[in-house]
Write a structure and sequence with these properties.
With 229 residues, the protein is mainly beta. The chain is built from two helices and eleven strands. The structure holds 2-acetamido-2-deoxy-beta-D-glucopyranose and copper (II) ion. Its cofactor is Cu(2+).
Length: 229
């Protein structure tokens, strides 16, 4: 079957309007694709998750993906993800950590249970004419809290695209999990802990929202409060 050129172009544009997080950036260097990040199901399509009640909300892991390595990083250091191609849509960026339970490794832990705590999120700029978030980033990063206990963690990056979020399940979630081994940390465990799925509801005001009209006067990120040391 031959697809009309216009349709092929449209398909290419749709995929390029989406994005993935295949490379972990740590110790100042960008690693290979899926070397330290659990390979995600959308690695070719770049497609988002739209149902926040699915198990994909943990790490969007491709069950047939390779086993990723675990990166040694210091507490207090900056760890990031390369965005492929870039953050195209409007919406917030959030980072979560999950401490790997005893008996598991970052490589074989899927992020199940109430293990996730939020370590960072950004807030929009709101004027009378528009609500906007930073966009176009080709990499994103976060500081690993200094106070968390040493050990293996999953670092979950999440970008929530809100351009179609005025109807239920219209928000698009793009996410991935890096595998890290934190050293030089402290003794304050992350909190509060939430589960994925579970932490978000389709009706959350940060997920079901018309960002265009009327222009929102506030924005509430979904999920728990940000953990602080
Ligand atoms: C994590 O770091 C500690 C301290 O450097 C080290 O002993 C341990 O082997 C590391 N674990 C992994 C999985 O790299
Ligand atoms: Cu898109």
């Amino acid at each position: 079957m031959q697809l009309p050129a216009a349709l092929l172009l449209l398909a290419a544009n749709l995929a390029s309007a989406h994005y993935i997080f295949p490379n972990l950036i740590f110790n100042g260097a960008t690693s290979n694709e899926w070397q330290y990040v659990k390979r995600t199901e959308n690695r070719y399509s770049n497609a988002p998750i739209t149902d926040v009640n699915t198990l994909q909300m943990r790490c969007y892991k491709d069950p047939s993906g390779p086993v990723a390595s675990t990166a040694n990083v210091a507490a207090g250091s900056t760890v990031g993800f390369k965005v492929s191609p870039d953050i195209f849509h409007p919406g917030p960026l959030l980072f979560y950590l999950a401490k790997v339970p005893a008996g598991k490794t970052a490589a074989n832990f899927e992020g199940d249970g109430a293990v996730w705590f939020k370590i960072w999120q950004n807030n929009p700029t709101i004027t009378s004419s528009a609500i906007t978030w930073p966009s176009g980033q080709t990499s994103v990063s976060v500081t690993i809290p200094r106070c968390i206990p040493d050990g293996q963690y999953l670092l979950r990056v999440e970008h929530i695209a809100l351009h179609s979020a005025s109807s239920t399940n219209g928000a698009q979630l793009y996410l991935a999990c890096g595998q890290i081994n934190v050293t030089g940390g402290g003794n304050k465990p992350g909190a509060p802990l939430v589960s994925f799925p579970g932490a978000y509801k389709a009706s959350d005001p940060g997920l079901l929202i018309n960002i265009y009209w009327p222009v929102p006067t506030t924005y509430i990120n979904p999920g728990p409060a940000v953990f602080t040391c």
